[in-house]
Amino acid sequence: MPNVVLALGDDISTDAIYPGRYMATVLPTETPQFAFADLTEFNARLTQQAVPPGSVVVAGQNFGCGSSREQAASALKGHELVVVAKGFARIFLQNAINLGLRTVICPSIAASEGDELEVGPSEVVNRTTGLHFPIVPLPEARQAIVNAGGLIPYARKKLLARTVAG
Amino acid sequence: MGQTIVQKILARASARPTVAVGDVVEPAVDLAMSHENGALVINQFLEIYQRTGLEPRVWDPARIAIIFDHRVPAESAKTATNQKRIREFVRAQAIAKFHDIRGDQGGICHQILPENGYVRPGAVVVGTDSHTTTHGALGAFAFGIGATEMAAVWALGKVLNVEVPATIKVVVRGQLPPRVQSKDLILHLIGRITAEGANFKVLEFHGDGIRAMPTSSRLTISNMAVEAGATAGIVPADEETVRYLREEAGVTDALDPVAPDPDATYDQVIEIDAASLGPHVARPHMVDNVAPIADTLGTKVDQIVIGSCTNGRLEDLAIAAEILKGRRVADGVRMLVFPASWKIYREALDRGHLAALADAGAVIMNPGCGCCLGVHQGALGDGEVALSTTNRNFLGRMGNPKAEVYLCSPAVAAASALTGTISDPRK
Ligand code: SF4
Fold first, then answer.
1. Min CA distance, B147 vs chain A (Å)?
2. Are both B117 and B147 inside the same structural domain?
3. pLDDT band at residue B332, thresholds of 50, 70 and 90?
4. Chain A partners of B19 at a C-beta cutoff of 8 Å?
């Protein structure tokens, strides 16, 4: 069962997730090294592969506010982290969906670092505290992109359909 | 039932008579803007075409704008290489609205688009930059998207899966007092509704207080709408919008504005009495940590910044020059001025604003984003404090997580430069 590897508060900006000084690095294959770069200890654990894929970052309201930089989503996706937050900022949420970063909207989530979480389709269960927290499902429009495996395959399908339709 | 401006714009762009909040639409895009992150858009665009057997071609090179502004001239080999790759793509795809690093056409994307008449009332504008909300000041629905989403726009000419947002109506009554600026008004609003108060919603601005403002002041308000989480911040077009487009942006072709219905349904209505507002300051490290200036007076500052897509326009440089003319920036303070575009630089030069600022001790930098995002110029030392007219003060935003950033209007920045501490420009 996945563990909470990082528990954060409200209003975590994309500057905190992926500092602006690394923005010249754009490729999804290169961005993961700078995930949470200013949280030096956590970043070191990530880059030393000490955080298993599927590990959970828990956050409060408005996670991913600020800049539209997609590196913030691709950097977390690179480590296959799951973000469970009380709420997300719009552009970050869309970028995460487009890139296949798993994001879970869970308005009442309460968990600390080290807790074991079970992230189901409709609720998150904190196995350490025994508490259950309902999940707000993704809007249909966004779910369609997730189901297609991300925006690139989704857009590719649309492009081919358009070409066939002439 | 009446419709808000964003409903009307989205209905028109998706060829439907009406749309309801929550409907999913795929609006046609009038303008798609990127900056240096175009390097990532190109990568994702080419990915979309992988294994399709199709030749990668953007849907409409006339509707794509690319502006170099975040790191100009390039600060590193990496940036320079990204810029080089973008130039090659621009040439190969014949992208029309390209603004390279040049003294006769460069600047910050959110100034270049309005001043060149690229944004029209009623248009759908997307940009790979969160402050794309700026262009709502011209009556457009303008919003920020990610690079992969932009790649899909370049391929298909529409934004996929847009949910029609709900709208908060903001009514501004009365006029701002002297040396209180539209920046103070938007900081006040963000302080009131918080950094997530308008998440997934549109702010629609009304009232005689907005009508009385020139477009340049409105651009500041729409620019920071995103700091309240808003998808867009729209000022319905009026006579001033038409004046700006004709006289300042040189637009000669027909305009086709969209207006909200008088009986539109709003999520919430917020009233602001502009005449009673004073200067406001956002304290570290959140944009909504806003206080009236009285609460921050006397805070010692090390670096003052005037510029950015929020407040690097001619009126901003003019008020700073008026306050600093014939006086001196206090010892121990560095003052950096970044005009938002070369056009503004040129006009500020002709009018003597730049000379007044330089004579007072300010450093006139080249147009661009400058130190706003902490990657290029004007980094802060450990423990230092900046007072800036930019739009974000998140921890580390100016390149150093051990420094602090306060946000304010150009008038407050200039008055504070004289004393080296946060000061009230009305005194
Ligand atoms: S000036 Fe700052 S906020 Fe504006 S586009 Fe540039 S980096 Fe972004």
1. 6
2. yes
3. very high
4. none
